[in-house]
Amino acid sequence: MKQFASLCQKGSDSLERFCLFGAGVLLVINLASVMLGVFGRFYRPPIWTLDLAKVTLVWMVMLAAAPALKRGEHMAITILVNMLPYRFRRFVKAIRTIVFFGVLALMLTLGSLYAIKMQVFTVMSLGISKTIPFLAIPIGMGLMMIEYALQQFIPLKNNSNCSSCENIAAREDLP
């Protein structure tokens, strides 16, 4: 089991590096596009800068969502769950995991369907199909689903990257 957990940890770390690198590249492109649009206003701004900034922002956020999930940086209200008795807390956490996977699967499915429907439209200033910006949602949800699945097999004690995940003490008292 430790080998599988180690494999999941390596996969999770690789996925995190890939997503953060992609988000970083998109951040640089976004900043360059916005700066070009701002400074171009004094002369003749390229019409495509605003649309490029929007597309890169959406993709950047969706790529960074999986590493944020790994690090526990998404908002969660755990005060009530942590106050529950051990057995009920474990049940609520299991339900929460199932619901979270369900929401991700729903967003992946609906996002894919919507992106496919948008293939007949184009972003005129960029000359690309609207499918490209809308694909950020199903791809981001898929990356989050993969990351969350990998995290289920990594013991929290060994997960040094997760600084603000659920209370480590709450997991350590599990038998």
From TrEMBL:
Primary site of residence: membrane
GO molecular function terms attached to this record: transmembrane transporter activity
Cellular component annotations (GO), alphabetically ordered: plasma membrane
UniProt keyword annotations, A-Z: Cell inner membrane, Cell membrane, Membrane, Transmembrane, Transmembrane helix, Transport
Residue stretches making up the Tripartite ATP-independent periplasmic transporters DctQ component domain: 32-152
Pfam families noted in UniProt: DctQ
Coiled coil ranges: none
Keyword Iron among record annotations: no
Family statement drawn from the similarity comment of this UniProt entry: Belongs to the TRAP transporter small permease family.
Protein's name in the database: TRAP-type C4-dicarboxylate transport system, small permease component
Organism, as annotated: Desulfopila aestuarii DSM 18488
